[in-house]
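Researcher: Next sequence.
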Amino acid sequence: MKKFSFLISLITLLLLFPINKAISDTIDLDALTPETGSNLTTEPLVTPYGTISYNGYLTGGVFWHDFTYPVTYSEFMFDFDVDSFDFLIGGAMGGIYIELLDINDSVVNSYHTLDLAVGQQVSLSGSGVRRFTFVDGRLTGGESEVWDLVVTTSAPVVPEPISSILFIVGGATLGFRRFRKKFKK
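Model: Next structure:
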């Protein structure tokens, strides 16, 4: 009977505390439909993880920054932690400078190039990213573009209620058995 109780406790602990603590998921921001960010300049995009906002130009499925735009940079803002970004860059001239910032506005990762080969694939990652900013790389005029932005986030695994119930029942059973064993002596 002891082996059976131990086995139940072990299974319950494994169910309650899974080995993989987070599930990775992606959000595609191609800006071609409202579901993928085409309305980001006027309203935040609501996702299962939180909201995404954008400050900058958005035309024809392309997020872009023009040096003459009234803000100093274009940015994506997230109210949840993001782990990585995969995207394409391009532009008319000037290069691009990208920064990933955490909740305290500390730079987590950055990318800079003066060669804007259209359709150049870029991947950046960092822990706890909350802002993705980009600007013309030379700061002398020109435009920088980001498109097909794929955001990867890790969602914490929340145990199902049955796991908690099994854990409590298992603990109560072990406690009752110990209590009963003491009174038999």
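Model: The mean pLDDT is 76. The first strand starts at residue 22 and ends at 29.
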